[in-house]
Every structure is written in C-alpha cells, then in structure tokens.
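Question (not urgent): is this output format expected?
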Amino acid sequence: MFAKLFARDAVIVGLTGLIWYLGAAASATPGPRGDFAGVIAGIPIGACGYLLHEWGHLLGAVLAGSSVQPGRSLASGFLFSFDSQANTRRQFVALSLGGWTATALVLWGVYAILPDDLFASRVARGFVAGNVLLVVLIEIPLVVYALVTGHVPPVENQPSVAPAAARVAE
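Got this back:
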C-alpha cells in the first residue's frame, strides 16, 4: 500500500508543479485574475508541504524501527498509522523529528526558491507557515509529554487536525 500512496503523492506533486508552471506568473498581475491565479497556484504548494511532512514522519519512524501500518485508503490524506502501544518513546521522538525536518526543509524551500514578487509565492508561504504553527501547537507538546513522562502519548483516539505524530489511518 505504501507504493500506491507514494504514487498518489507523486502525482499530486507533479500536478502541483504543472499548476505552478501554468499559473503562478499570472499572480504577479494585480486584480482578481492575479489573486485567483495566486490562490490556485499557491495552495497546492502548501498541500505538498503537508504531504512531505507526513513522508518525513514515516521516514523517521522507519529509520527508528517503528511499527507502522500504511493508510487504508488512497482517498485519505493520512499516510500511515503509528502504534503508540507497540512503539517506544525513542521511536516516537524519531517519528516526530522526521516530520519536523521535512517541514523545516519545505519552509526553507518556499522562502529560498519561490519568487518574492508573486502572490502565489505568498499564498504558498502562508500555507506552509500555517503548517509550522500547527506543528508547534500540536506536535511539540506531544513530544514534550513523551520526554517528560517517559511514555508515548496515547494519541490514537484523537482526531488528526494537522500532520501529527499519531495514528492517522482511519
């Protein structure tokens, strides 16, 4: 199933690149056309940032030898399920750091690579910055909890509001 999820996400990234190529330059034009083009080209960049964050979590989990299960549906935005009962605190922290590293790279990328003069770039940057805020508000407290208590937080029953180091298969 991971191969199918990878193929799905590769298609999404490819389509995002095509949308950016076709529409981002139009976002430099003031007015409704430029605003529309900026939103249409910028939001998918942020969505790809979320996907990369999730793949970063998976990479961190796999490198730490965690027990993970692939998402059950290609229609779901969630990549995998992390079993907080079967995995250790070290594995949970590694999973978390993987997602955070991916998000940091995406944040660097949208500021270092995207042109400053495009509204599409600002939309993409805003979306990615929002993802960073959610990581800070949701994921960092979970890792602090794990480090302070020595236990992996029981996050399976919590709804996934953002890319969280949690059980994400529905």
